[in-house]
Amino acid sequence: MDHYAGRRRGCRNLTDPQRELADRLAVRAELLRAEADRDGEGLSIRDAIALAAVQLGLHTPAEA
Fold first, then answer.
1. How many other β-carbons are positioned within 10 Å of the β-carbon of residue 31?
2. ∠ at Cα 60 (59, 64), nearest 5°?
């Protein structure tokens, strides 16, 4: 069985918190692209990731 099955390329060396952040970033970027496509504007993956990173940086994690 492939140990890295289901992971994106380049994620092998990430720590668990880094991998979680990368996953959150990818999900947010895909949502932004889908929303832009609905509006007829379109959004490149590069721009979507940059915007997602800014948005995630503006949100503070909830206190546990």
1. 13
2. 135
Q: CB neighbours of 37 closer than 8 A, spacing ≥ 6?
A: 43
CA–CA distance, 24 with 21 (Å, rounded to integer): 5
Whether 21 contacts 10, CB under 8 Å? no
Contact 43, 33 (CB under 8 A): yes
pTM of the model: 0.68
**How confident is the prediction along the chain (64 residues), in pLDDT tens digits per residue?**
445 555 556 557 889 998 999 999 999 999 999 999 888 888 999 999 999 999 988 876 664 4
